[in-house]
Amino acid sequence: MKNPILTIPTAPIAGMKPGTSGLRKKVTEFQQPHYLANFVQSIFNAVRPTEGFTGQTLVLGGDGRFFNLEAAQLIIRMAAANGFARVLVGQGGILSTPAASCVIRKHQTFGGIILSASHNAGGPAGDFGIKFNAANGGPAPEHLTEAMYAASQVITEYGTVDTPDVDLHRLGTQDVVGMAVEVIDPVADYAELMGRLFDFPKLRALFASGFRLRFDAMHAVTGPYAHAIFEGLLGAPAGTVVNGTPLPDFGDHHPDPNLVHAKALYDVMMGADAPDLGAASDGDGDRNLIIGRGLFISPSDSLAMLAANAHRAPAYAQGLAGIARSMPTSGAADRVAAALGVPCFETPTGWKFFGNLLDAGKVTICGEESAGTGSDHVREKDGLWAVLLWLNILAERRQSVADIAREHWATYGRNYYTRHDYEEIDTAAAHQLMAGLRDQLPSLPGRTVAGKQVQLADDFSYLDPVDGSVSAKQGVRVVLEDGSRIVYRLSGTGTAGATLRVYIEQFEGDPARHDLPTQDALAALIAAADELARIRELTGRTEPSVIT
Ligand code: VG1
Ligand code: CO
């Protein structure tokens, strides 16, 4: 019989450097001959143990976007050729990012490949992405993504097998040249984990008492999870979950749960007869948007409020070991950590930097200003987890989201916070802008910005307290004498031009001033941010594309 394993000669393709979260490119780029195969083989080459993949299991799933199914078939073939014993794949190729992390950990596998470009648009003209998570269930740390990139620059061949497609819709085990492909229910393991973390009987009682949730799955991956958990296990009425069917192009929307792309949800929550809680998630289910009746909760505030109240959910009843937040995320969580008497860690942007802290047991809850919150239950941020924790807190406190927020600010003070994104600006202009800021850094301390003295101006560098690795150039920050901050960095997830993110924060201790519109409260700093970086002048933009 002819050997079904094929070794295909190939050559390096430029530009395969993973960004903040995996390799993201236009679908059309991934569709080029050998492109996906080159990167998958580069992953395998970078992570292969000396003894090979014999006996190892790979987890595979994605957010349901266009090109996921073709990619899944190729990866299964390549896993077989590379010697894996088993692939666990979500039915229909579906696994949310947090569910993939859960499956990797629960089944003690080698790791997993997640097919997603997260909040980026999908469809044939949209984006595709691929990321590798290690055995702890977390995103590959920087030394591994660097190794993948290095492997992609010297690749000469990849392995695949000449076999028909597996049926990804049929649950159960199929054989691919001696490798077992097990198609699993993408929701089951994850739902079971959520049931252990939270007080489901109490949440059922909450919904039975008439509590109203509106969850917008944005036609992305959380639809099946949200239907099964909220409307199934917790008995919320049908219609609680909207846009709950994953579509390859997300219904032609960006699956980004922010105030631009989830505007419909925002409008419902600000309208008459709004539900008690509005929430949304992104393409791959790791982000969350939280809106109370009449009040948007900034992700930075949500992290702080969840941390302050986490002990009300069974999983966190014993308290928190510590809290971690990404550098641009507001200091609201730091105030909670201080009150709890636990450490607060400041990491670069991207969930991969939380993995070591979580593995070492140094932190229990982590979060990013970009609507990512999670805990030590998996090694990814987790959108539905955040919604369930909010629900559990609401069920215990029996107060509105707005009342909880106002009490929180009265206790800890309010960190007014906003992020301004300038999307798809000219790449050269973006780099010029950042270089201009870096040049100013030495002369900024002592200067007056927005009426206050600059206390610290630097390009954030992170020393990982667990493995001692250093990640430099993680964002320019200008900190004023009262702790107010302006932070600038370029996005590492876009696929067209550059995206400048400007993060602005100011603390307000006086409860009489806790109800200002955020953009008004921060107006002086917003103007100063433009002046310092010459944003209008260099980008030609008069306003941000997205304000959160
Ligand atoms: C963005 C966010 C970052 C997040 C990353 C991945 O990165 O700012 O906080 O971890 O997306 O999230 P960047 O480099 O574009 O700022 V997701 O939901 O795309 O996996
Ligand atoms: Co995401």
UniProtKB/TrEMBL annotation:
<feature type="domain" description="Alpha-D-phosphohexomutase alpha/beta/alpha">
    <location>
        <begin position="300"/>
        <end position="412"/>
    </location>
</feature>
<keyword id="KW-0460">Magnesium</keyword>
<dbReference type="GO" id="GO:0004614">
    <property type="term" value="F:phosphoglucomutase activity"/>
</dbReference>
<protein>
    <recommendedName>
        <fullName>phosphoglucomutase (alpha-D-glucose-1,6-bisphosphate-dependent)</fullName>
        <ecNumber>5.4.2.2</ecNumber>
    </recommendedName>
</protein>
<dbReference type="Pfam" id="PF24947">
    <property type="entry name" value="PGM1_C_vert_fung"/>
</dbReference>
<dbReference type="InterPro" id="IPR045244">
    <property type="entry name" value="PGM"/>
</dbReference>
<comment type="similarity">
    <text>Belongs to the phosphohexose mutase family.</text>
</comment>
<keyword id="KW-0614">Plasmid</keyword>
<dbReference type="Pfam" id="PF02879">
    <property type="entry name" value="PGM_PMM_II"/>
</dbReference>
<keyword id="KW-0479">Metal-binding</keyword>
<dbReference type="InterPro" id="IPR005846">
    <property type="entry name" value="A-D-PHexomutase_a/b/a-III"/>
</dbReference>
<dbReference type="GO" id="GO:0046872">
    <property type="term" value="F:metal ion binding"/>
</dbReference>
<dbReference type="Pfam" id="PF02878">
    <property type="entry name" value="PGM_PMM_I"/>
</dbReference>
<dbReference type="Pfam" id="PF02880">
    <property type="entry name" value="PGM_PMM_III"/>
</dbReference>
<dbReference type="InterPro" id="IPR005845">
    <property type="entry name" value="A-D-PHexomutase_a/b/a-II"/>
</dbReference>
<feature type="domain" description="Alpha-D-phosphohexomutase alpha/beta/alpha">
    <location>
        <begin position="190"/>
        <end position="291"/>
    </location>
</feature>
<dbReference type="GO" id="GO:0005829">
    <property type="term" value="C:cytosol"/>
</dbReference>
<keyword id="KW-0597">Phosphoprotein</keyword>
<feature type="domain" description="Alpha-D-phosphohexomutase alpha/beta/alpha">
    <location>
        <begin position="16"/>
        <end position="155"/>
    </location>
</feature>
<dbReference type="InterPro" id="IPR016055">
    <property type="entry name" value="A-D-PHexomutase_a/b/a-I/II/III"/>
</dbReference>
<dbReference type="InterPro" id="IPR005841">
    <property type="entry name" value="Alpha-D-phosphohexomutase_SF"/>
</dbReference>
<keyword id="KW-0413">Isomerase</keyword>
<dbReference type="InterPro" id="IPR036900">
    <property type="entry name" value="A-D-PHexomutase_C_sf"/>
</dbReference>
<dbReference type="InterPro" id="IPR005844">
    <property type="entry name" value="A-D-PHexomutase_a/b/a-I"/>
</dbReference>
<dbReference type="GO" id="GO:0005975">
    <property type="term" value="P:carbohydrate metabolic process"/>
</dbReference>
